[in-house]
Amino acid sequence: MGELRRIGILTSGGDCAGLNAVIRAVVHSAVNTYGWEVLGIRQATQGLMTRPPEALVLTPDRLDPYLTAGGTILGTTNKGNPFAFPMPDGTVCDRSNEIIEGYHALGLDALIGIGGDGSLAILRRIAQQGKLNLVGIPKTIDNDVAVTEMSIGFDTAVSVATEALDRLHFTAASHSRVMILEVMGRDAGHIAMCAGIAGGADIILIPEIPYTLDGICQTIQQRQEQGKNYCLIIVAEAVRTESGDSVILAETNEGCRLGGIGQYLSQQLCSRINAETRVTVLGHTQRGAAPTSVDRLLAAAFGVAAVELIAHEKYDQVVTWQNRKIVSVPIAEAIAQYAAVNPAGTLATTARRMGIFLGS
Q1: Given 142, 144, 155, 295, the catalytic residue
Q2: Which of 85, 183, 200, 255 is the least buried, fewest Cβ under 10 Å from its Cβ?
Q3: Mean pLDDT, to the nearest integer, of 318-329?
Q4: Which helix (H) or strand (E) holds 353?
Q5: What's the CA gap between 245 and 161, in Å, rounded?
Q6: How far is it, in rounded angstroms, from Cα 65 to Cα 82?
Q7: Is the Cα torsion angle 108, 112, 116, 121 positive or negative in sign?
Q8: Does residue 243 or residue 251 have the better pLDDT?
Q9: What is the pLDDT of residue 127?
Q10: How many angstroms separate the CA atoms of 319 and 113, rounded?
Q11: pTM (two decimals)
């Protein structure tokens, strides 16, 4: 403990607010407390596959200006599984050993991986294969990593969506319109649920709770009968059509890109209700904002805790936030399941008691 070490850090998967704040916390803690050298790996695992590996020395002075910056100064990728990496000739190749070799070429004693469940699963498999010392930090705006109450980026995404609802209130009321706000949420509806309650939505649609178009129309009609001339609907991108089909924006080599449920709802409602509908899709604006104070605090706590795990040689662990404190758990446990919104949980009950329509 406390010996001179060289550690690496990378960001993997989709970007989000707070990544630079995590990197900054790791560097401050590692350099100032233990005198270690910290190398930032470029473009996630792709930086370790490059020859020579793409890395840069990180210092506290270099990181301080990026506390409030969105994105990640290291770059990231959510494409190209190293165990089945797409090659120029159309074939796939297992390049995991190249990542292991890159780790050793940089002389790393340990690696901190910041990512969601998919990224952490890949990093752990590589670490197990190469006997690398790995510590994980959870980040996902979807907040669907089951073992932590909060992940980096979630609070900022909710704040962006809440602000959008705040602004849509006025234009909806001015024109007597139904405003549909489509937000991210690949598997879970945490952003839609939290922002919907905080932003005063009248209808919240999430993938965990089924709905009917008739139920939505009845809610809008009831509001009109009460003299309320507008309605705000927030919907997670993973919500399916009434018949159960996913709404897909595009097909890629990496899979399906969700998107378009807001437009689907608008088209279905326009012939059923006596009101104009408009759709706003937030998309990547939820990822690119400056991190909120909550995300900055969480980033600091996670970064420091990850360094402490390395100092005590506790590897194959991910740091989590539970009951207002940091708790480390095995990475395997963290990626074993995802945290969906509980249809009978506190937030869903809160929404229903406040008169918000959630579906059936």
Answers
A1: 142
A2: 255
A3: 96
A4: helix 346-353
A5: 25
A6: 33
A7: positive
A8: 243
A9: 97
A10: 11
A11: 0.92
